[in-house]
Amino acid sequence: MGKLIVWNIASLDGYFEGPEPWDLSLHETIWGDELSEFSQTQLADTEALVFGRRTYEGMASYWANETETGPITDAMNALPKYVVSNTLTAADWNNTKIIGGDVIEALRDIKAASERNLYVFGSAELLATLLPAGIVDEYRLGLAPLLLGRGNLLFKPSDTRIDLELLKTQPLKNGGIVLSYGLKTPS
Questions:
Q1: In which order are the strands placed within the sheet that holds 46-52?
Q2: Which pLDDT score, from 0 to 100, does residue 187 have?
């Protein structure tokens, strides 16, 4: 059985997107050879990608039209994808299925049948649903070396506390850091 892993890049103050939709300029401060290699390793270990509707639409628009080929572009377009939405009627990006209704139960079933990991990219609204359900196994966060000041928070305010334990840190030469956290096991 694979794990459900959340992956995203965020500013030190917690924003994964600037004040305007798809303002991802903060990603430029952390992107480089090291993060490219990290991304390729993750994609090689991916059973499927999971997106909320808004993130799916942006990713599909970008990756399906990317003309430069390479390991990341090829993987993003070839991998199976799930988009969680109760409003989409069609998902045209290669290898995409729509999950509607009980997303938690659907993802539990997909995870149980998976040999490799499922990755949730972006999708802050979807995360607000997944986190309290306890379905996420690991959190991987690329911290960009900046305070953005405003934008779209990756983790929405919640009444649910989730205790984590640090699994790994990977400092990057450009000042960013990749943090990996798992669920803390009760002592």
A1: 96-99, 81-84, 46-52, 117-121, 4-11, 138-144, 177-183, 164-171
A2: 67
Dihedral sign computed on CA atoms, order 6, 8, 12, 15: negative
Q: How many CB atoms lie within 10 A of CB 77?
A: 16
Contact 162/152 with Cβ under 8 angstroms?
Answer: no
Distance CA 165, CA 143 (A): 17
Q: Is pTM, for the whole model, over 0.90?
A: yes
- For residue 63, the SS3 value is helix
Give the ranges where the chain is alpha helix by DSSP (H): 33-44, 53-63, 71-78, 103-113, 124-133
Nearest one of 27, 25, 23, 22 to 8, comparing CA atoms: 27
